[in-house]
Amino acid sequence: MQLTTFYKEEFKMKYTAQDFKSNQEVRWCPGCGDHSVLASLQRALPEVAEQLNYTKERFVFVSGIGCSSRLPYYMNTYGFHSIHGRATAISTGMKVANPNLTIWQATGDGDSMAIGGNHFIHAIRRNIDINIVLFNNRIYGLTKGQYSPTSPLGKITKTSPYGTVEHPFNPGALVLGARGTFFARSIDNDLKLNQEIFVASAKHDGCSVTEMLVNCVIYNDGSHKDFSDREVRADRTIVLRHGEKMIFGKNNDKGIVLRHGKLEVVTIGENGITEDDILVHDAHSANSGIHSLLIDMKFPEYPVALGVIRDVKDMTYDDNVRDQLIEVKAKSKINCVDDLLRSGSTWEVE
Protein backbone atom coordinates (compact mmCIF):
# COMPACT_ATOMS: atom_id res chain seq x y z
CA MET A 1 0.00 0.00 0.00
CA GLN A 2 2.86 2.37 0.82
CA LEU A 3 4.45 1.66 -2.55
CA THR A 4 1.17 2.41 -4.34
CA THR A 5 0.79 5.71 -2.50
CA PHE A 6 4.40 6.64 -3.22
CA TYR A 7 3.95 5.79 -6.88
CA LYS A 8 0.86 7.97 -7.24
CA GLU A 9 2.35 10.94 -5.43
CA GLU A 10 5.87 10.87 -6.83
CA PHE A 11 5.39 9.61 -10.37
CA LYS A 12 2.09 11.09 -11.49
CA MET A 13 2.69 12.73 -14.86
CA LYS A 14 1.07 15.57 -16.73
CA TYR A 15 0.43 13.99 -20.11
CA THR A 16 -0.06 15.65 -23.47
CA ALA A 17 -1.62 14.37 -26.68
CA GLN A 18 1.88 13.65 -27.98
CA ASP A 19 2.40 11.13 -25.18
CA PHE A 20 -0.39 8.99 -26.63
CA LYS A 21 0.86 9.07 -30.25
CA SER A 22 2.87 6.10 -31.42
CA ASN A 23 5.74 6.30 -33.91
CA GLN A 24 3.78 4.34 -36.53
CA GLU A 25 2.69 5.85 -39.83
CA VAL A 26 -1.08 6.33 -39.87
CA ARG A 27 -2.16 4.32 -42.89
CA TRP A 28 -5.72 5.42 -43.49
CA CYS A 29 -6.75 6.99 -46.76
CA PRO A 30 -6.21 10.77 -46.93
CA GLY A 31 -9.49 12.41 -45.94
CA CYS A 32 -10.81 9.40 -44.02
CA GLY A 33 -12.84 10.41 -40.97
CA ASP A 34 -10.88 7.96 -38.82
CA HIS A 35 -8.01 10.47 -38.69
CA SER A 36 -10.18 12.97 -36.80
CA VAL A 37 -11.43 10.37 -34.32
CA LEU A 38 -7.86 9.30 -33.61
CA ALA A 39 -6.83 12.92 -33.00
CA SER A 40 -9.80 13.44 -30.68
CA LEU A 41 -8.87 10.38 -28.64
CA GLN A 42 -5.25 11.40 -28.33
CA ARG A 43 -6.32 14.85 -27.13
CA ALA A 44 -8.92 13.49 -24.71
CA LEU A 45 -6.78 10.90 -22.92
CA PRO A 46 -4.50 13.38 -21.09
CA GLU A 47 -7.64 14.90 -19.57
CA VAL A 48 -8.94 11.41 -18.70
CA ALA A 49 -5.63 10.55 -17.05
CA GLU A 50 -5.64 13.77 -15.04
CA GLN A 51 -9.25 13.60 -13.90
CA LEU A 52 -9.15 9.91 -12.97
CA ASN A 53 -5.55 9.88 -11.72
CA TYR A 54 -4.52 7.24 -14.26
CA THR A 55 -1.02 6.50 -15.46
CA LYS A 56 -0.57 5.75 -19.15
CA GLU A 57 0.20 2.12 -18.35
CA ARG A 58 -3.46 1.57 -17.43
CA PHE A 59 -4.71 2.31 -20.96
CA VAL A 60 -5.31 -0.57 -23.39
CA PHE A 61 -6.71 -0.34 -26.91
CA VAL A 62 -8.35 -3.44 -28.41
CA SER A 63 -9.69 -3.90 -31.93
CA GLY A 64 -11.14 -6.49 -34.28
CA ILE A 65 -10.85 -6.32 -38.07
CA GLY A 66 -11.54 -3.38 -40.36
CA CYS A 67 -10.11 0.04 -41.15
CA SER A 68 -10.86 1.37 -37.67
CA SER A 69 -9.21 -1.67 -36.13
CA ARG A 70 -5.77 -0.35 -37.06
CA LEU A 71 -6.16 2.21 -34.29
CA PRO A 72 -4.17 0.34 -31.56
CA TYR A 73 -1.03 0.68 -33.69
CA TYR A 74 -1.34 4.47 -33.60
CA MET A 75 -1.71 4.74 -29.83
CA ASN A 76 1.35 4.78 -27.57
CA THR A 77 -0.37 2.48 -25.08
CA TYR A 78 -0.81 -1.23 -24.61
CA GLY A 79 -2.84 -2.69 -27.46
CA PHE A 80 -4.30 -5.89 -28.88
CA HIS A 81 -5.34 -6.38 -32.51
CA SER A 82 -7.71 -9.34 -32.28
CA ILE A 83 -9.82 -11.12 -34.90
CA HIS A 84 -12.99 -10.25 -36.75
CA GLY A 85 -15.90 -9.52 -34.41
CA ARG A 86 -14.13 -10.77 -31.29
CA ALA A 87 -12.72 -7.53 -29.86
CA THR A 88 -15.54 -7.33 -27.30
CA ALA A 89 -14.76 -10.82 -26.00
CA ILE A 90 -11.08 -9.91 -25.65
CA SER A 91 -11.98 -6.63 -23.93
CA THR A 92 -14.27 -8.43 -21.49
CA GLY A 93 -11.57 -10.93 -20.57
CA MET A 94 -9.01 -8.19 -20.02
CA LYS A 95 -11.29 -6.16 -17.77
CA VAL A 96 -12.29 -9.13 -15.61
CA ALA A 97 -8.67 -10.32 -15.32
CA ASN A 98 -7.38 -6.85 -14.44
CA PRO A 99 -10.14 -4.42 -13.36
CA ASN A 100 -7.59 -1.61 -12.95
CA LEU A 101 -7.17 -1.34 -16.72
CA THR A 102 -9.14 1.21 -18.70
CA ILE A 103 -10.15 -0.65 -21.86
CA TRP A 104 -10.88 1.17 -25.13
CA GLN A 105 -12.27 -0.80 -28.05
CA ALA A 106 -12.11 0.41 -31.63
CA THR A 107 -14.63 -1.29 -33.90
CA GLY A 108 -16.56 -0.67 -37.08
CA ASP A 109 -20.20 -1.08 -38.09
CA GLY A 110 -19.35 -4.35 -39.81
CA ASP A 111 -17.01 -5.67 -37.13
CA SER A 112 -19.43 -5.04 -34.24
CA MET A 113 -22.88 -5.13 -35.85
CA ALA A 114 -22.43 -8.23 -38.05
CA ILE A 115 -20.01 -11.01 -37.08
CA GLY A 116 -19.45 -9.44 -33.66
CA GLY A 117 -23.09 -8.60 -32.98
CA ASN A 118 -23.63 -11.25 -30.33
CA HIS A 119 -20.56 -10.25 -28.32
CA PHE A 120 -21.55 -6.59 -28.70
CA ILE A 121 -25.05 -6.87 -27.22
CA HIS A 122 -23.97 -9.15 -24.37
CA ALA A 123 -21.16 -6.82 -23.28
CA ILE A 124 -23.77 -4.06 -23.12
CA ARG A 125 -26.26 -6.29 -21.28
CA ARG A 126 -23.60 -7.27 -18.75
CA ASN A 127 -22.53 -3.64 -18.39
CA ILE A 128 -18.85 -4.55 -18.46
CA ASP A 129 -16.75 -1.43 -17.81
CA ILE A 130 -15.23 -0.91 -21.28
CA ASN A 131 -15.34 2.01 -23.72
CA ILE A 132 -16.54 1.00 -27.18
CA VAL A 133 -15.87 3.46 -30.02
CA LEU A 134 -17.99 2.40 -32.98
CA PHE A 135 -16.76 3.87 -36.28
CA ASN A 136 -19.87 3.94 -38.48
CA ASN A 137 -19.22 4.71 -42.15
CA ARG A 138 -22.19 2.58 -43.27
CA ILE A 139 -20.01 0.43 -45.54
CA TYR A 140 -17.36 -2.30 -45.49
CA GLY A 141 -14.29 -0.24 -46.35
CA LEU A 142 -11.35 -2.60 -45.82
CA THR A 143 -12.97 -5.35 -47.92
CA LYS A 144 -13.68 -2.85 -50.70
CA GLY A 145 -17.19 -1.52 -50.58
CA GLN A 146 -19.80 -4.13 -49.64
CA TYR A 147 -22.92 -2.97 -47.81
CA SER A 148 -22.86 -3.25 -44.02
CA PRO A 149 -25.54 -3.73 -41.33
CA THR A 150 -25.89 0.08 -41.09
CA SER A 151 -26.10 0.82 -44.83
CA PRO A 152 -29.40 2.57 -45.59
CA LEU A 153 -32.22 0.77 -47.36
CA GLY A 154 -31.72 0.92 -51.14
CA LYS A 155 -27.97 1.59 -50.93
CA ILE A 156 -26.17 0.55 -54.12
CA THR A 157 -22.86 -1.20 -53.40
CA LYS A 158 -20.70 -3.96 -54.86
CA THR A 159 -22.81 -6.58 -53.11
CA SER A 160 -26.13 -4.79 -53.68
CA PRO A 161 -25.91 -3.54 -57.30
CA TYR A 162 -29.68 -2.96 -57.39
CA GLY A 163 -29.88 -1.51 -53.89
CA THR A 164 -30.13 -3.18 -50.47
CA VAL A 165 -33.45 -4.77 -49.60
CA GLU A 166 -33.05 -4.78 -45.82
CA HIS A 167 -33.50 -2.27 -43.02
CA PRO A 168 -30.29 -1.13 -41.29
CA PHE A 169 -29.43 -1.33 -37.63
CA ASN A 170 -29.67 1.81 -35.55
CA PRO A 171 -26.70 1.32 -33.18
CA GLY A 172 -28.24 3.49 -30.46
CA ALA A 173 -31.51 1.58 -30.52
CA LEU A 174 -29.54 -1.66 -30.28
CA VAL A 175 -27.73 -0.33 -27.20
CA LEU A 176 -31.01 0.62 -25.52
CA GLY A 177 -32.53 -2.75 -26.43
CA ALA A 178 -29.66 -4.44 -24.62
CA ARG A 179 -30.33 -2.26 -21.54
CA GLY A 180 -27.28 -0.07 -22.20
CA THR A 181 -26.22 2.51 -19.64
CA PHE A 182 -24.24 4.88 -21.90
CA PHE A 183 -24.73 5.94 -25.49
CA ALA A 184 -23.28 8.92 -27.31
CA ARG A 185 -23.08 9.95 -30.94
CA SER A 186 -20.89 12.39 -32.82
CA ILE A 187 -19.47 13.34 -36.23
CA ASP A 188 -15.86 12.55 -37.05
CA ASN A 189 -14.59 16.11 -37.59
CA ASP A 190 -16.12 17.72 -34.49
CA LEU A 191 -12.96 17.32 -32.41
CA LYS A 192 -14.13 19.45 -29.48
CA LEU A 193 -17.37 17.51 -29.01
CA ASN A 194 -15.57 14.21 -29.51
CA GLN A 195 -13.08 15.01 -26.76
CA GLU A 196 -15.95 15.91 -24.44
CA ILE A 197 -17.69 12.62 -25.19
CA PHE A 198 -14.56 10.50 -24.71
CA VAL A 199 -13.91 12.03 -21.30
CA ALA A 200 -17.53 11.36 -20.29
CA SER A 201 -17.19 7.80 -21.61
CA ALA A 202 -14.08 7.16 -19.53
CA LYS A 203 -15.73 8.51 -16.38
CA HIS A 204 -18.80 6.30 -16.86
CA ASP A 205 -18.70 3.16 -14.72
CA GLY A 206 -20.07 0.57 -17.10
CA CYS A 207 -20.21 -0.21 -20.81
CA SER A 208 -20.08 2.98 -22.86
CA VAL A 209 -20.83 2.99 -26.58
CA THR A 210 -19.97 6.00 -28.72
CA GLU A 211 -21.15 5.95 -32.32
CA MET A 212 -18.77 7.97 -34.47
CA LEU A 213 -20.29 8.91 -37.81
CA VAL A 214 -17.24 8.77 -40.06
CA ASN A 215 -16.80 9.40 -43.76
CA CYS A 216 -15.26 6.81 -46.09
CA VAL A 217 -13.91 8.91 -48.97
CA ILE A 218 -13.31 5.90 -51.19
CA TYR A 219 -16.40 3.67 -50.94
CA ASN A 220 -19.09 5.81 -49.30
CA ASP A 221 -18.10 9.44 -49.64
CA GLY A 222 -20.68 11.86 -48.26
CA SER A 223 -22.61 9.22 -46.34
CA HIS A 224 -23.58 11.72 -43.63
CA LYS A 225 -23.31 14.96 -45.63
CA ASP A 226 -27.03 15.78 -45.46
CA PHE A 227 -26.52 16.83 -41.85
CA SER A 228 -22.76 16.76 -41.24
CA ASP A 229 -21.53 19.42 -43.68
CA ARG A 230 -20.53 22.56 -41.82
CA GLU A 231 -22.86 24.73 -43.93
CA VAL A 232 -25.98 22.88 -42.72
CA ARG A 233 -24.88 21.20 -39.47
CA ALA A 234 -26.25 23.86 -37.11
CA ASP A 235 -29.79 23.50 -38.48
CA ARG A 236 -29.74 19.74 -39.00
CA THR A 237 -28.12 18.48 -35.82
CA ILE A 238 -28.60 19.13 -32.12
CA VAL A 239 -25.86 18.73 -29.50
CA LEU A 240 -27.35 17.40 -26.28
CA ARG A 241 -25.79 18.16 -22.91
CA HIS A 242 -27.19 17.03 -19.59
CA GLY A 243 -29.18 19.76 -17.85
CA GLU A 244 -29.31 22.04 -20.88
CA LYS A 245 -32.27 23.03 -23.06
CA MET A 246 -32.65 21.17 -26.36
CA ILE A 247 -32.05 24.26 -28.48
CA PHE A 248 -30.35 24.25 -31.88
CA GLY A 249 -30.16 26.10 -35.17
CA LYS A 250 -27.80 28.63 -36.71
CA ASN A 251 -29.58 31.34 -34.75
CA ASN A 252 -30.34 29.17 -31.69
CA ASP A 253 -34.02 29.75 -32.34
CA LYS A 254 -35.19 26.15 -32.74
CA GLY A 255 -35.99 23.63 -30.05
CA ILE A 256 -37.50 20.26 -29.17
CA VAL A 257 -40.75 19.83 -27.25
CA LEU A 258 -42.72 16.76 -26.23
CA ARG A 259 -46.39 16.61 -27.22
CA HIS A 260 -48.66 13.60 -26.87
CA GLY A 261 -45.69 11.27 -26.40
CA LYS A 262 -43.96 12.51 -29.56
CA LEU A 263 -41.05 14.90 -30.08
CA GLU A 264 -41.70 18.00 -32.18
CA VAL A 265 -39.43 20.68 -33.60
CA VAL A 266 -40.60 24.22 -32.83
CA THR A 267 -39.35 27.74 -33.45
CA ILE A 268 -38.85 29.92 -30.40
CA GLY A 269 -40.91 33.09 -30.68
CA GLU A 270 -43.55 31.59 -32.95
CA ASN A 271 -47.04 30.48 -31.84
CA GLY A 272 -46.31 31.59 -28.30
CA ILE A 273 -43.32 29.25 -27.90
CA THR A 274 -40.69 30.41 -25.39
CA GLU A 275 -37.51 28.85 -24.07
CA ASP A 276 -39.48 27.67 -21.04
CA ASP A 277 -41.38 25.27 -23.32
CA ILE A 278 -38.23 23.56 -24.60
CA LEU A 279 -37.23 20.19 -23.15
CA VAL A 280 -34.24 19.96 -20.83
CA HIS A 281 -31.95 17.03 -21.61
CA ASP A 282 -31.72 14.47 -18.79
CA ALA A 283 -29.01 11.99 -19.75
CA HIS A 284 -29.20 10.43 -16.27
CA SER A 285 -32.87 9.49 -16.40
CA ALA A 286 -33.46 5.80 -15.72
CA ASN A 287 -36.48 6.00 -18.03
CA SER A 288 -35.12 5.32 -21.51
CA GLY A 289 -38.27 6.50 -23.32
CA ILE A 290 -37.02 10.00 -24.18
CA HIS A 291 -33.56 8.65 -24.91
CA SER A 292 -35.10 6.26 -27.43
CA LEU A 293 -37.00 9.08 -29.13
CA LEU A 294 -33.85 11.19 -29.33
CA ILE A 295 -31.78 8.33 -30.75
CA ASP A 296 -34.41 7.69 -33.44
CA MET A 297 -34.55 11.32 -34.65
CA LYS A 298 -33.67 11.51 -38.34
CA PHE A 299 -33.21 14.30 -40.85
CA PRO A 300 -35.21 15.87 -42.53
CA GLU A 301 -38.08 15.67 -40.02
CA TYR A 302 -35.76 16.13 -37.05
CA PRO A 303 -32.21 17.21 -36.32
CA VAL A 304 -29.82 14.32 -35.70
CA ALA A 305 -29.02 14.04 -31.98
CA LEU A 306 -25.34 14.30 -31.06
CA GLY A 307 -23.54 14.29 -27.71
CA VAL A 308 -24.08 12.07 -24.68
CA ILE A 309 -27.68 10.89 -25.02
CA ARG A 310 -27.75 8.36 -22.17
CA ASP A 311 -25.50 8.09 -19.10
CA VAL A 312 -27.05 6.18 -16.17
CA LYS A 313 -25.65 4.18 -13.27
CA ASP A 314 -26.10 0.45 -12.77
CA MET A 315 -24.15 -2.50 -11.42
CA THR A 316 -21.22 -3.64 -13.57
CA TYR A 317 -20.19 -7.15 -14.52
CA ASP A 318 -16.56 -6.74 -13.52
CA ASP A 319 -17.44 -5.35 -10.08
CA ASN A 320 -19.88 -8.20 -9.51
CA VAL A 321 -17.29 -10.83 -10.47
CA ARG A 322 -14.74 -9.25 -8.13
CA ASP A 323 -17.19 -9.09 -5.22
CA GLN A 324 -18.34 -12.65 -5.79
CA LEU A 325 -14.75 -13.93 -5.73
CA ILE A 326 -14.06 -12.09 -2.48
CA GLU A 327 -17.19 -13.59 -0.91
CA VAL A 328 -16.44 -17.12 -2.09
CA LYS A 329 -12.82 -16.92 -0.89
CA ALA A 330 -13.92 -15.70 2.54
CA LYS A 331 -16.23 -18.69 2.99
CA SER A 332 -14.10 -21.33 1.33
CA LYS A 333 -12.27 -24.00 3.34
CA ILE A 334 -9.93 -24.55 0.42
CA ASN A 335 -7.26 -21.86 0.32
CA CYS A 336 -4.38 -23.62 -1.39
CA VAL A 337 -3.55 -26.65 -3.53
CA ASP A 338 -2.75 -28.72 -0.44
CA ASP A 339 -6.22 -28.00 0.95
CA LEU A 340 -7.71 -29.08 -2.36
CA LEU A 341 -5.78 -32.35 -2.44
CA ARG A 342 -6.84 -33.18 1.12
CA SER A 343 -10.51 -32.31 0.55
CA GLY A 344 -13.16 -34.96 -0.10
CA SER A 345 -12.29 -38.65 0.29
CA THR A 346 -8.62 -39.25 1.00
CA TRP A 347 -6.56 -42.29 2.01
CA GLU A 348 -3.19 -42.72 3.60
CA VAL A 349 -1.14 -45.57 2.13
CA GLU A 350 1.42 -47.05 4.52
Q: What structural class is derived from the secondary structure elements?
A: alpha/beta
Spatial strand sequence of the major β-sheet: 2-1-3-4-6-5-11-7
Give the uncertain stretches in residue-range form. Answer: 1-10
Determine the strand fraction and express it as a percent band.
Answer: 15-25%
What is the C-level CATH assignment of the domain at 2-223 and 313-317? Alpha Beta
**DSSP summary: helix tally:** 12
Radius of gyration: 23 Å
Helix percent band: 25-40%
Distance between the termini: 47 Å
- How can the largest sheet be summarized? 8 strands, mixed
- Mean pLDDT metric: 94
CATH fold assignment of the domain at 2-223 and 313-317: Rossmann fold
The appropriate CATH architecture of the domain at 2-223 and 313-317 is 3-Layer(aba) Sandwich
Query: How would you sum up the global shape?
Result: globular
How many strands? 11
What is the element string, with H for helices and E for strands?
HHEEHEHHEHEHEHHEEEEHEHH
CATH superfamily of the domain at 2-223 and 313-317: Thiamin diphosphate (ThDP)-binding fold, Pyr/PP domains
